[in-house]
From TrEMBL:
PROSITE patterns: FBPASE. This is Fructose-1,6-bisphosphatase class 1. It comes from Dyadobacter jejuensis. Binds 2 magnesium ions per subunit. It catalyses: beta-D-fructose 1,6-bisphosphate + H2O = beta-D-fructose 6-phosphate + phosphate.
């Protein structure tokens, strides 16, 4: 079909399992542990897919009345997804420790001999759970740097975005799709409910060079930096389509296939940006770069941002390379604007 990643004539083609097996051979020192880890994530994804599909029927919608380390109200499905992924990774045996959006500290799985650690956003787009709009799961995998057999430490999780050995997301939308990379391109697998299997549906996904879609919460427009406002005004002037569902996974996936840009700039409420570096920005940036797209903040590539804490936030601009390069021009012109929201005056004014 098109060059944006071959769309396979389905219904039944290569299962995720078979694809993982076939591609394991591409890695000289492959031991099968990462393959098993990916299967464990897919298994938990199938369970969450089932929960999401019946969200309106059973009592899994609405807030739980608790809040997470970021002070956000936890939705029931946030916590259900958290429990399901932790359990699947514990039972799978390939992961020694986990960082999730829903828990403050490192979760030890008891598999101290295991090779990998995982950072995960169990349920992305929580504000959309109750209203039947696409939501997702985002994951990022590292080989541990501490010795096997010992307790994993902060060091294992704060290695930096370019040390990820795998990253991906599951989108629970009109269909459920698992998209991941292990550093050798990006492939997507669509879930076939009746067979209970993920099948390869988009091989070697590539972002279009340019696009005509911009995704940003324009409700925050007045809080953005002047130069971000000018970039968005330019998108409007060029009659680009404004598409924002409020689920990073959903907005990113659309833009990856069609060509677009997602922006979550700093605002007074989130002076560092809203999205979390370890389990939202890094994994999406790894996928983006593997698909020929780009991911930056106003200082550097997202994958080069230094990690200092588990739940640190960061601004992110991610999408088609030409659109990011154009945005970078606006950043370059910002000159002597201080790194604060537009409401903050120019250096030396007042
Ligand atoms: O409502 P806002 O401020 O536009 O934020 C929406 C963004 O926040 C998120 O919901 C944050 O993720 P979580 O739902 O996992 O907390 C993103 O998915 C989404 O892009
Ligand atoms: Mg999220
Ligand atoms: Mg979340």
């Amino acid at each position: 079909m098109t060059s944006k990643g071959e769309k396979m004539a389905l219904p039944v083609g290569i299962t995720l399992d078979r694809f993982i097996k076939r591609n394991q051979g591409a890695f000289q020192f492959a031991s099968g542990e990462l393959s098993q880890l990916l299967r464990d994530i897919a298994l938990a994804g199938k369970i969450i897919n089932r929960e999401v599909n019946k969200a309106g029927l059973v009592d899994i919608t609405g807030a739980l009345g608790t809040s997470n380390v970021q002070g956000e109200n936890q939705q029931k499905l946030d916590v259900i997804a958290d429990i399901r992924f932790i359990r699947a990774l514990k039972n799978g045996g390939e992961v020694c420790a986990i960082i999730t959006e829903e828990e403050d500290e490192i979760i030890y799985t008891g598999n101290d001999d295991a090779k990998y650690v995982v950072a995960i956003d169990p349920l992305d787009g929580s504000s959309n759970i109750d209203v039947n709009v696409s939501i997702g799961t985002i994951f990022s995998v590292y080989s541990r740097v501490t010795p096997r057999g010992t307790k994993a430490t902060m060091e294992d999780f704060l290695q930096g975005g370019r040390k990820q050995v795998a990253a991906g997301y599951i989108l629970y939308g009109s269909s459920t799709i698992l998209v991941y990379t292990t550093g050798a391109g990006v492939n997507a697998f669509t879930y076939e409910n009746s067979l209970g299997e993920f099948f390869l549906s988009h091989r070697n996904v590539k972002s279009p060079e340019d696009g005509a879609i911009y995704s940003v919460n324009e409700g925050n427009f007045d809080d953005f930096y002047d130069y971000t406002q000018r970039y968005i005004l330019n998108c409007r002037k060029r009659r680009m389509s404004s598409r924002y569902i409020g689920s990073l996974v959903g907005d990113f996936h659309r833009n990856l296939l069609k060509g677009g840009i997602y922006l979550y700039p700093p605002t007074p409420h989130y002076p560092q940006g809203k999205l979390r570096l370890l389990y939202e920005c890094y994994p999406m940036a790894f996928i983006a770069e593997q698909a020929g797209a780009k991911a930056i903040d106003c200082e550097s590539d997202i994958l080069d941002v230094k990690p200092v804490s588990f739940h640190q936030r960061n601004s992110i601009y991610i999408g088609a390379p030409k659109m990011i390069e154009e945005l970078e021009q606006y950043f370059k012109e910002r000159g002597d604007y201080v790194i604060k929201a537009a409401r903050f005056e120019k250096v030396g004014e007042n």
